[in-house]
Amino acid sequence: MAEQLRNDAKELIEKYSTVPEKMRRVQEVTAQYNQKLEQYKQLNYASSKENRDQRLMMYAEIKILGWILGKPEKDVLKALNQCVVGNPLGVTAMSDF
Q1: Helices 26-45 and 52-69 meet at what angle, rounded to 10?
Q2: Most buried of the four, 25, 28, 39, 49, by CB within 10 Å?
Q3: Average pLDDT per run of 10 along the chain, which is 97 residues long?
C-alpha cells in the first residue's frame, strides 16, 4: 500500500514537473506590485512585533516585483517609504537588510 502511494506520488511529480511556467504579462505584474504596496501600507499602519516577519517578506516581494518591472531600486524604495509615512514606530524601508 505504501509502495503504491509512493509510486503514485512519483508519477504525479513527473507528470507536472515538465510543465513550463507561463510568462506573466506586464499588466499582471504591475497589478500585483500595486496590490502588494497597498497591503504593505496596511501592515505598517497596524505595526506590531507580531507582523514583522510578514512585513519583511512583503518588502522583499515588492522589491522583486519592481525588479521584474524594470523599475530602478530608488523608485521602489521611494514607493515603500511612502507606505510608512505616519507610521507610529518610525520604521522606514532601507535598501538592504
Answers
A1: 150
A2: 39
A3: 81 73 83 92 77 86 92 91 63 49
